[in-house]
Protein backbone atom coordinates (compact mmCIF):
# COMPACT_ATOMS: atom_id res chain seq x y z
CA UNK A 1 0.00 0.00 0.00
CA UNK A 2 1.37 3.36 -1.12
CA UNK A 3 2.19 5.69 1.84
CA UNK A 4 -0.29 3.89 4.13
CA UNK A 5 1.91 2.24 6.77
CA UNK A 6 2.31 4.00 10.11
CA UNK A 7 5.32 4.62 12.30
CA UNK A 8 6.94 1.35 13.44
CA UNK A 9 5.01 -0.78 10.92
CA UNK A 10 7.03 -3.53 9.21
CA UNK A 11 7.91 -2.53 5.63
CA UNK A 12 9.86 -3.52 2.53
CA UNK A 13 9.96 -0.23 0.58
CA UNK A 14 10.23 3.47 1.48
CA UNK A 15 7.03 4.30 -0.40
CA UNK A 16 4.97 2.07 1.90
CA UNK A 17 5.61 4.49 4.79
CA UNK A 18 3.80 7.78 5.38
CA UNK A 19 5.32 11.07 4.21
CA UNK A 20 8.24 12.00 6.47
CA UNK A 21 9.00 8.34 7.18
CA UNK A 22 11.26 5.82 5.46
CA UNK A 23 11.63 2.06 5.61
CA UNK A 24 14.74 1.63 7.75
CA UNK A 25 16.50 -1.53 8.98
CA UNK A 26 16.29 -1.72 12.78
CA UNK A 27 19.22 -3.10 14.76
CA UNK A 28 18.96 -4.03 18.44
CA UNK A 29 21.81 -5.48 20.45
CA UNK A 30 23.78 -6.00 17.24
CA UNK A 31 20.99 -8.00 15.57
CA UNK A 32 19.05 -6.69 12.57
CA UNK A 33 15.44 -7.53 13.33
CA UNK A 34 13.72 -6.20 10.21
CA UNK A 35 12.69 -3.03 8.40
CA UNK A 36 10.24 -0.59 9.96
CA UNK A 37 8.70 2.76 9.04
CA UNK A 38 10.88 5.32 10.82
CA UNK A 39 10.26 9.06 11.10
CA UNK A 40 12.94 11.52 10.08
CA UNK A 41 14.11 13.92 12.75
CA UNK A 42 12.80 16.83 10.69
CA UNK A 43 9.32 15.27 10.38
CA UNK A 44 9.18 14.34 14.09
CA UNK A 45 10.59 17.44 15.80
CA UNK A 46 11.57 19.89 13.06
CA UNK A 47 15.00 20.75 11.69
CA UNK A 48 16.05 22.50 14.91
CA UNK A 49 14.18 20.13 17.23
CA UNK A 50 15.62 17.69 19.72
CA UNK A 51 14.61 14.01 19.60
CA UNK A 52 15.37 13.44 23.29
CA UNK A 53 13.33 16.43 24.46
CA UNK A 54 10.47 16.48 21.97
CA UNK A 55 10.40 13.15 20.14
CA UNK A 56 9.43 10.78 22.95
CA UNK A 57 9.50 7.83 22.92
CA UNK A 58 11.57 8.05 19.72
CA UNK A 59 14.18 9.90 21.75
CA UNK A 60 17.43 8.68 20.20
CA UNK A 61 18.87 10.57 17.22
CA UNK A 62 20.72 8.48 14.60
CA UNK A 63 21.91 8.87 11.04
CA UNK A 64 20.59 5.86 9.14
CA UNK A 65 20.06 4.75 5.55
CA UNK A 66 16.68 3.51 4.35
CA UNK A 67 16.18 0.43 2.19
CA UNK A 68 15.72 2.83 -0.74
CA UNK A 69 19.12 4.46 -0.13
CA UNK A 70 17.98 7.67 1.60
CA UNK A 71 20.40 8.73 4.34
CA UNK A 72 18.93 11.05 6.97
CA UNK A 73 18.77 11.72 10.70
CA UNK A 74 15.97 9.80 12.38
CA UNK A 75 14.34 9.88 15.82
CA UNK A 76 14.38 6.23 16.94
CA UNK A 77 13.42 4.24 20.02
CA UNK A 78 16.24 4.46 22.57
CA UNK A 79 15.61 1.34 24.65
CA UNK A 80 13.68 -1.17 22.55
CA UNK A 81 12.43 -2.17 19.11
CA UNK A 82 9.32 -1.47 17.08
CA UNK A 83 7.93 -4.98 17.75
CA UNK A 84 8.29 -4.57 21.54
CA UNK A 85 6.86 -1.03 21.38
CA UNK A 86 3.90 -2.36 19.38
CA UNK A 87 3.35 -5.22 21.87
CA UNK A 88 2.94 -2.86 24.85
CA UNK A 89 -0.20 -3.86 26.81
CA UNK A 90 -0.70 -6.91 24.58
CA UNK A 91 -0.98 -10.47 25.89
CA UNK A 92 0.64 -12.81 23.36
CA UNK A 93 0.88 -16.52 24.05
CA UNK A 94 3.55 -17.06 26.69
CA UNK A 95 3.04 -13.77 28.53
CA UNK A 96 0.74 -14.98 31.30
CA UNK A 97 0.80 -15.95 34.98
CA UNK A 98 1.89 -19.51 34.20
CA UNK A 99 4.90 -18.79 32.01
CA UNK A 100 5.81 -15.07 32.30
CA UNK A 101 8.11 -15.34 29.28
CA UNK A 102 9.87 -12.10 28.30
CA UNK A 103 10.60 -13.78 24.96
CA UNK A 104 6.85 -13.72 24.17
CA UNK A 105 7.10 -9.93 23.85
CA UNK A 106 8.89 -8.08 21.06
CA UNK A 107 11.04 -9.45 18.25
CA UNK A 108 12.10 -13.09 18.40
CA UNK A 109 15.39 -13.86 20.15
CA UNK A 110 16.64 -10.30 20.78
CA UNK A 111 15.59 -9.62 24.40
CA UNK A 112 13.75 -6.38 23.61
CA UNK A 113 10.45 -6.97 25.43
CA UNK A 114 9.35 -7.80 28.95
CA UNK A 115 6.35 -9.71 30.33
CA UNK A 116 5.24 -8.07 33.59
CA UNK A 117 2.32 -8.25 35.99
CA UNK A 118 0.01 -5.26 36.05
CA UNK A 119 0.12 -3.58 39.47
CA UNK A 120 -2.55 -4.94 41.80
CA UNK A 121 -3.77 -7.52 39.30
CA UNK A 122 -3.03 -11.10 38.34
CA UNK A 123 -2.86 -10.25 34.65
CA UNK A 124 0.42 -10.10 32.70
CA UNK A 125 1.12 -7.82 29.74
CA UNK A 126 4.03 -7.00 27.46
CA UNK A 127 6.10 -3.90 28.11
CA UNK A 128 9.72 -2.90 27.54
CA UNK A 129 12.74 -1.49 29.35
CA UNK A 130 13.08 2.26 29.86
CA UNK A 131 15.62 4.77 31.10
CA UNK A 132 13.12 7.53 31.91
CA UNK A 133 9.51 8.57 31.39
CA UNK A 134 10.57 9.90 27.96
CA UNK A 135 10.81 6.29 26.75
CA UNK A 136 7.22 5.57 27.81
CA UNK A 137 4.97 7.68 25.59
CA UNK A 138 2.71 5.03 24.09
CA UNK A 139 0.29 5.95 21.29
CA UNK A 140 -0.08 9.50 22.60
CA UNK A 141 -0.36 8.60 26.31
CA UNK A 142 2.47 9.48 28.68
CA UNK A 143 3.20 6.61 31.07
CA UNK A 144 5.83 6.39 33.77
CA UNK A 145 9.07 4.43 33.81
CA UNK A 146 8.85 2.08 36.79
CA UNK A 147 12.44 2.47 37.97
CA UNK A 148 11.92 0.81 41.36
CA UNK A 149 12.78 -2.55 39.73
CA UNK A 150 15.59 -3.84 37.55
CA UNK A 151 15.28 -3.60 34.67
CA UNK A 152 13.09 -0.52 34.83
CA UNK A 153 10.06 -0.81 32.53
CA UNK A 154 7.22 1.28 31.14
CA UNK A 155 4.04 1.14 33.22
CA UNK A 156 1.27 -1.07 31.92
Termini Cα gap: 32 Å
Which range does the strand content fall in? 25-35%
- Give the tally of structural domains: 2
The number of helical elements comes to 3
* Global Rg: 16 Å
Helix/strand order? EEHHEEHEEEEEE
Mean pLDDT: 94
Number of E strands? 10
Oligomerization: single chain
**Can you tell me the residue ranges where pLDDT is under 50 for at least 5 consecutive residues?**
none
Strand arrangement across the biggest beta sheet: 1-2
- Could you say which overall geometry the principal axes of the C-alpha atoms support? globular
SSE class: mainly beta
Please outline the major beta sheet: 2 strands, antiparallel
Roughly what percent helix?
under 10%
Throw out a few tags for this protein.
156 residues; mainly beta; 2 domains; two-stranded antiparallel sheet
Can you give a write-up of this model?
This protein is mainly β and 156 residues long. The chain contains three helices and ten strands, in the order E-E-H-H-E-E-H-E-E-E-E-E-E. It has helices at residues 41-45, 51-54, 82-87, and strands at 21-28, 31-39, 60-65, 71-76, 114-117, 124-127, 137-138, 141-142, 145-146, 153-154. The longest helix is centred in the middle third of the chain and has 6 residues, at 82-87. It starts with 20 loop residues before the first strand and ends with a strand. The mean pLDDT is 94.
Amino acid sequence: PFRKKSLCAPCEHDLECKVGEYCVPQVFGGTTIGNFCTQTKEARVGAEGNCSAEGAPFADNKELTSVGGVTARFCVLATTTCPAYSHHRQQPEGCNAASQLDSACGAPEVNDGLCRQKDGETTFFCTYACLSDADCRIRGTQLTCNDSVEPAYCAI
